Amino acid sequence: MICLFGGTFDPIHLGHLHAAVAVCDALALDEVRMLLSARPGHRGATGATARQRWEMLVLACADDRRLAPDDTELRRAEGRGRPSYTVETLEDLRAGAPDERLVWVIGSDAYRDLETWHRWREVFALADLLVLRRPGAELRLAGALETETRQRRVERFTAPAGQVRVLEAPMLEVSASAVRESLAGGGTAAADLLPRAVYTYIYEHHLYGVIGDA
Ligand code: ATP
User: Fold this and answer.
1) Ligand 1, atom 7, residue with closest C-alpha
2) What is the pLDDT of residues 21-80, one digit of tens each?
3) CATH number where 96 lies
4) Are 167 and 130 in contact (CB under 8 A)?
5) Per the domain annotation, does 15 fall within a domain?
6) Which residues are near ligand 1 (CB < 6 Å)?
7) Residue 214: pLDDT band by 50, 70, 90 thresholds?
8) Which residue's alpha carbon is nearest to atom 8 within ligand 1?
9) Which residue range is the domain that position 85 belongs to?
């Protein structure tokens, strides 16, 4: 099984790490690939560059061997010079592993927006989706996504693609936007929301509007 947890990770925070570990436990995985989105098509500019987000991701994953930072999309975007789409990443992986189970991990906030993704229906043909219930992002769905989800919902994955499982494990109420806001506001709350090495990196590189020392 290949399990991918994609994100902008701008910056990676404890909510992401907690979620990745919960996924490893729930699926009995040796590793989850923490896949950095180089320049997501549906999002605006990031606060840190792709290289900086990658360096923070590597630092954050260093203490847990189950968390494997993955720069596949970063390298592909550099090669193509255009935004990377999830469906393309999954197509590439699928081509190399036709029978392997692929699991794409996604928070409930992002899942609710799935219909805005490039070729979103094809994602189901390529991977199973594991949805995390983020606090404050109820899984209230409507329209085509609601129908697709209802038809595909399972308690346990049994097929290499096409199924949707909602993980009931509790998630932390942390978001990268709250972290950025706190940093820009000069508060110290972000210290409790980030791995220590990431917090230090942000101060060393004066990211997200921070000034002074950590
Ligand atoms: P932002 O606040 O800028 O939107 P974010 O905190 O949602 O950022 P992303 O890098 O966009 O971080 O998220 C990557 C993936 O991780 C998404 O699928 C998102 O739903 C999920 N995710 C983010 N934070 C959490 C969390 N605290 N618990 C569970 N999943 C999370």
Assistant:
1) 175
2) 999 999 999 999 999 997 655 556 778 998 999 999 999 999 999 999 999 998 888 887
3) 3.40.50.620
4) yes
5) yes
6) 7-10, 15-16, 19, 106-107, 109-110, 132, 134, 171-172, 174-177
7) confident
8) 176
9) 2-173
Q: Is residue 134 part of a domain?
A: yes
Distance set, CA 139 to CA 9, 109, 130, 143, 155 (Å): 22, 8, 13, 13, 16
**Residue 185, exposed/middle/buried by CB under 10 A (0-12, 13-18, 19+)?**
exposed
Angle CA 165–167–171, to nearest 5: 150
Q: Which numbered atom of ligand 1 lies nearest the CA of 178?
A: 2
Q: Which atom of ligand 1 is nearest to the CA of 10?
A: 10
Structure tokens at 12: 């990676």
Q: Is residue 210 part of a domain?
A: no
CB 198 within 8 A of CB 59: yes
Name the residue at shortest CA distance from atom 13 of ligand 1: 7
Q: Give domain status of residue 149, yes or no.
A: yes
Q: Please state the atom number of ligand 1 nearest to the C-alpha of residue 18.
A: 28
Evaluate whether 190 touches 179 at the Cβ level (below 8 Å): yes
Tally of CA atoms within 13 A in the half-sphere of 4 that contains its CB: 25
**Number of domains comprising the chain:** 1
Residues 6+ apart with CB under 8 A from 85: 41, 117, 118, 119
Angle CA(113)–CA(106)–CA(1) in degrees, nearest 5?
140
Pocket test for ligand 1, best of 175, 180, 198 (most atoms within 8 A of CB): 175
138 Cα–ligand 1 center, Å: 14
